[in-house]
């Protein structure tokens, strides 16, 4: 019985790079020496090792079965992954694939096998700090498919790879005619493990409200590409989106705006998640082995809260509601006199948010907070202490690194513009962003890498992109793809390093929603009619760039090349079309007609 390798045994596996072609050879076998793209396998993110075996393809038909092999304690999870697989393969084919025990010698069986490994301990709702839990091995031949992993998330990630081995129509949301060659998957042997344990996707539901169904759609997008954290930016100047029972004003008042949408617009729609709706999102993410990371941003980006609660302002009077486009707005009043009120607010809010999120993280924000002396520290101290008191691991934007008492194990999200910051690494230590990152590292924090000129997918692709911003850069597909987290905080001459790969917990891709309407830079919205539906904005900005960032997070640098990625995307894009995703046909890829 094969169990997934926890770490690549160097003696067994060699990855040879021939020009732009990454070719994996497994010693002792006689593999076809093909890169994943030219082998006709449109696999994204590219797996650690792929061997194309010469034999016949597996044929999925109405008699195919899904077999579950698992120790009793993991049976519910393995059963659940089996159901996910049955749904993925059954929707477009119309096949009702039964789940059952393995049958020796069965033909047409897809076997999901969980093989525990004492070295890999997966804990439901645990920290995302072990790449081993996502590892899997997948073999396909003309009789059987066998997917093995040590942990349920690994099985789920392997299912995403398996989906990509079947024809693109398999991703359609309605029953399709059988493709000419049948519903087949080629004979392959794949062994895969991610580079980074934390692979996040952030959605800004504050500037624009994403209804539950749209959040689920975003989860589908992210989980298909093996991302495992859903960071929800739940609060900002323009809106407060999560219900807090003990402070109903936060949603009664604070949710009535979106950016560009004043109170009273929106035909009476409700722009926040009730406790039940929020639980539905958490459960849906959990089904895809994604951990929700809720963000309550502060002390800046809090005008919606300040408009709801007089206790957060120095004169006790709520501020007017805000639906403009600016950042760096006034922060909550964390003066010595008002600190008790701020603490009370944080205690109530964070207790409620901690209770609604089984995951281990609380993101406390901390960006763009123009602060009178001492206020930022006072706020940060209170928020860190309260979050820690609820047993949560703190995450903050890199400015949060300035917190005097940063709790142990904290993660700091780096969102600098690499193009501008890399050249000053190692110079006089005066750059505020780098100073904050250094301060965080000095306190033992690790980094989530979200350089704004690479991962901020609200940035326009090019001058023709209708939506979005360009303050960090315009981000082409190649720019979204072509960076290495390990050297992102190293000077261009390679001589000075602020942080290396060992300091990095992972990578996160972000979709802010500030300017989600056409002609976004030329004018502010004159009416809510100018906005496009959130799904349309998200699909267009995320595809094809989200798969690019997902590959940065999952695949080893040595296995990646842009030309190869582009070739694979040509094969992947019909899946987006089949799934009804409104993607952007960027010009630098020769998309199939
Ligand atoms: C910067 S990133 C922000 C957000 C904006 C975004 C727009 C960060 C921590 N702050 O408030 O939405 O730019 O690109």
From TrEMBL:
Residue span, Beta-hexosaminidase bacterial type N-terminal domain: 43-192
Matching SUPFAM superfamilies: (Trans)glycosidases, beta-N-acetylhexosaminidase-like domain
One Pfam family recorded for the sequence: Glyco_hydro_20
Keywords of the record: Glycosidase, Hydrolase, Signal
Glycoside hydrolase family 20 catalytic domain span: 196-371, 377-556
Secretion signal span: 1-27
One annotated GO molecular function: beta-N-acetylhexosaminidase activity
Annotated EC: 3.2.1.52
Catalytic activity: Hydrolysis of terminal non-reducing N-acetyl-D-hexosamine residues in N-acetyl-beta-D-hexosaminides
InterPro entries, sorted: Beta_hexosaminidase_sua/sub, GH, Glyco_hydro_20_cat, Hex-like_dom2, HEX_bac_N
Family: Belongs to the glycosyl hydrolase 20 family.
PANTHER family per the UniProt record, alphabetical: BETA-HEXOSAMINIDASE, BETA-N-ACETYLHEXOSAMINIDASE
The protein's name in its UniProt record: beta-N-acetylhexosaminidase
């Amino acid at each position: 019985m094969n169990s997934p390798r926890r770490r690549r045994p160097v003696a067994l596996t060699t990855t040879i790079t021939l020009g732009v072609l990454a070719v994996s050879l497994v010693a002792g076998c006689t593999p076809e020496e093909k890169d994943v793209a030219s082998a006709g396998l449109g696999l994204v993110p590219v797996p650690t090792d792929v061997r194309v075996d010469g034999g016949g393809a597996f044929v999925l038909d109405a008699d195919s079965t899904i077999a579950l092999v698992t120790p009793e304690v993991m049976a519910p999870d393995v059963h659940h992954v089996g159901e996910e697989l049955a749904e993925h393969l059954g929707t477009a084919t119309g096949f009702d694939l039964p789940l059952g025990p393995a049958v020796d010698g069965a033909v047409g069986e897809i076997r999901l096998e969980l093989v525990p490994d004492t070295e890999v301990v997966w804990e439901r709702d645990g920290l995302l700090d072990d790449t081993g839990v996502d590892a899997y091995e997948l073999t396909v031949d003309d009789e059987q498919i066998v997917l093995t992993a040590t942990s349920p998330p690994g099985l789920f990630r392997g299912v995403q790879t398996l989906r990509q081995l079947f024809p693109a129509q398999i991703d359609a949301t309605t029953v399709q005619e059988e493709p000419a060659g049948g519903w087949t998957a080629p004979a392959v042997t794949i062994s895969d493990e991610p580079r980074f344990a934390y692979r996040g996707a952030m959605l800004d539901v504050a500037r624009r409200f994403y209804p539950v169904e749209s959040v689920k759609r975003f989860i589908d997008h992210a989980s298909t590409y093996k991302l495992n954290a859903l960071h929800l930016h739940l609060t900002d100047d323009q809106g407060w989106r999560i219900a807090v029972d003990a402070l109903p004003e936060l949603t009664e008042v604070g949710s009535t705006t979106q950016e560009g949408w004043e109170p009273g617009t929106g035909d009476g729609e409700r722009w926040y998640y009730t406790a039940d709706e929020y639980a539905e999102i958490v459960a849906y993410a959990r089904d895809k082995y994604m951990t929700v990371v809720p963000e309550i941003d502060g002390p800046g980006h809090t005008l919606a809260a300040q408009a709801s609660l007089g206790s957060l302002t120095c004169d006790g009077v709520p501020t007017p509601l805000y639906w403009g486009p600016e950042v760096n707005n006034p922060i909550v009043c964390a003066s010595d006199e008002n600190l008790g009120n701020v603490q009370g607010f944080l205690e109530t809010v964070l207790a409620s948010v901690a209770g609604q999120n089984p995951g281990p993280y609380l993101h406390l924000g901390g960006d763009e907070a123009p602060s009178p002396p001492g206020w930022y520290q006072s706020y940060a101290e209170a928020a860190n202490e309260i979050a820690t008191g609820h047993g949560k691991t703190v995450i903050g934007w890199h400015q949060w690194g300035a917190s005097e008492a940063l709790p142990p194990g904290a993660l700091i999200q780096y969102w600098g513009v690499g193009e501008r910051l890399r050249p000053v690494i190692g110079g006089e230590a005066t750059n505020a962003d780098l100073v904050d990152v250094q301060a965080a590292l000095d306190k033992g924090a690790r980094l989530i890498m979200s350089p704004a000129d690479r991962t901020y997918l609200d940035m326009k692709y090019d001058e023709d992109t209708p939506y979005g911003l360009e303050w960090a850069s315009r981000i082409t597909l190649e720019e979204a793809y072509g960076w290495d987290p390990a050297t992102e905080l190293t000077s261009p001459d390679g001589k000075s390093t602020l942080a290396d790969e060992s300091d990095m917990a992972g990578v996160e891709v972000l979709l802010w929603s500030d300017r989600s309407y056409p002609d976004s830079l030329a004018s502010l919205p004159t009416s809510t009619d100018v906005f496009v539906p959130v799904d349309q904005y998200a699909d267009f900005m995320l595809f094809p760039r989200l798969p690019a960032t997902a590959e940065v997070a999952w695949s080893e640098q040595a296995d990646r090349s842009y030309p190869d990625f582009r070739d694979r995307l040509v094969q992947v894009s019909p899946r987006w079309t089949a799934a009804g995703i409104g993607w952007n046909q960027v010009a630098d890829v020769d998309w199939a007609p």
